Amino acid sequence: MVKRTLPTNPKTRRLIKLLRKASSSNESAVWRTLSDSLSTPTRQRVSMNVSKIDRLAEEGDVVAIPGKVLGFGNIGKKVDVAALSFSQSAKDKIAQAGGKALTFEALMIANPHGKNVRILR
Question: CB under 8 Å to 9, separation ≥6 — which residues?
């Protein structure tokens, strides 16, 4: 049986460790779930369009996506989105709608306990 390894990207590995540390220190299951989702192989990682975020999120939500956000479609709601990475068009569309495109580190600083954070896959 093949031993399962973590991602090889050093930034992603550092982020996974940071999320697990925040999970244990703040007793928040959201950060642990995100770290587990980021530990999946790159081929299975989530990529989501802003149109799907518009369908699934409510106005004013804070959404975490364990993958990349792409700019296909439109978003008409003010939603703060945290993700591993963003395309430039996705950042622009989220900003035009009045939301913010955040990194996971910025989201952990702003909301250390992970209250009202929805994970979309």
Answer: none
